[in-house]
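Internal QA ticket QA-208
Title: Verify multi-chain structure generation after dependency bump
Assignee: T.L.

Test input:
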Amino acid sequence: MPVLGTCPGGDSVGQTRGRIFFFLPALILLAAFVVYPVINTVWLSFQTPEGEFSFFKNYAEILSEPEIVDLRGFKRGFPYGALIHNIMWIVIHLPLTVMLGLILAVILRDVKGGAIIKSIIFLGMVTPMVVGGIILRFLFDGSVGILPSFLSLFGVARRTLTAHPDTALFALILGSLWLWTPFSMVLYSAGLETIPDYVYEAAVIDGASPLRILFLITVPLLRPVTGVVITMTFLWVLKIFDIVYVATMGGPGGASNVLALQMYMYAFRQFNANAAAVVATFLMIVALVVSIPTFRALRGDES
Amino acid sequence: MRMAGQKTSRTFMLHVVAWLLALIWLVPFLGVFMASIRPLSEISRGWWKFATFTPTLENYVGAWNHPAAPISRGMMNSLKVAIPGTIFPVLAASVAAYGFARFSFRGRDFLFIVIVALMTLPQQMIAVPLFRIMNKLGAVDSYAGLMVVHSAWGIPWILYFMRNYFSALPIEVEEAAKVDGASDWRIFLQIVMPMALPAVASSSVLQFMWVWSDFFLALILIYSPAKLLATQRVPLLRGVYHVDWGILAAGSIIVMTVPIIVFALMQRYYIRGMVGWVSK
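Actual output:
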């Protein structure tokens, strides 16, 4: 609870006390339905199913389960385990989101009808992820999907891309890129608007080429935006669940499994609350570590 | 002259690339839309082929009145969660945000940072205990329970967004009102909130979209077939012996229309809410 001290302006004590009611509804909700469950999950992650405290034993066990990390994958291909899949997802998705978002924002600023194109691309952002999963499943379907049919023109055997171990994860990553790029595009577009015209005018007078302007002026000036895009994208990919659940259920044979889905499986299919808590806590720690730089920046802004 | 020619061709190329990208982005949506208005026989030949083209609303009727998972019911259920699940957290978070912006007390900044840090939590982090808590409260499989969880979950970012907005408002008006003897609540309700309506709109639109689109929390807390929300019903529209793409596509589009309409009407506020992360 906040300690309400004296306030500038010499308010009466009664009024200062009343201020606690500004905070109560929000704090009670957060305490009961966010903070308490979080602490409880951390606690569960250190306990055996019998309720004994076991330090990091759960972590050592769960994080070496084949559904989390499967080193045999490096010899025989998918599945590599949910953790490795998440890492692959981030390694592929993150740089492409940053680049595509920036390129789209820069191109569409100068193109006639750019606003219309932005609205089309933005559709992915307002699509519920469950629907996104269905759309991807349809897009990649071997018999009715347009992508396998298109690829068959180039001699690629027509098959359901989400149903084969070697393509399922990559198909989902491609789909997530399609759904998420609008986020970085919108943020970069807003960032571009904050760069004053005279900066560009000076560069044009100096005879700088468009590529030089992009890399020497636009990109450095947009660095704060890039920071936010990277953090938010990382967090989004880390928690990815809906589209995997709907499009592949982590399959075939765990080839597109991810941590968030595995956590759900542990908790609500295998009823192993402790294993689920380990995965969830692991996700939380990664999420917090990744967001620290952004929080620093947010805090820096205040002073 | 040559320079000008180069520039025109570059502008032309830029337009080609831009519209090509737009097309690529549109194709998956176009696919579901086409599948939703065509009979299955035409979909199986490829939705992009138009040798025969018989547009029909049958799939929409089928999804709307689906025997196992009628989308009509799901839409009503989702509204029952999403509307209070938007109003409640926006109110609770706005009030607290004003407190964080204007009242000073010991530990204020620390408490604020803790709340902001809650934004990064994955929902998986509360899933297991949440089910147990709701079970104890008798609120499993109830909209009230789900609504309360969505409210709590939405508070950190709404609070963050609203506090930044309140902090940027000119404090002079509030100080003048205080000199005239107005109470904190009066100042907040009669002076500050009317000025903050655009921010209230932004946070409401985003929160509504999130609650409407949510799948994970609903999956954990709601399980009676009659109570399933719209997002939970869409995957159930898959046929039994073969995938009924037409009905699946129509159901998907029905569920999408609500966020699309909200976006179309409130685009400005939606974008402002999203961009709230970068510009202050």
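Spot checks passed. The CA atoms of residues 29 and 35 of chain A lie 9 Å apart.
Status: verified.
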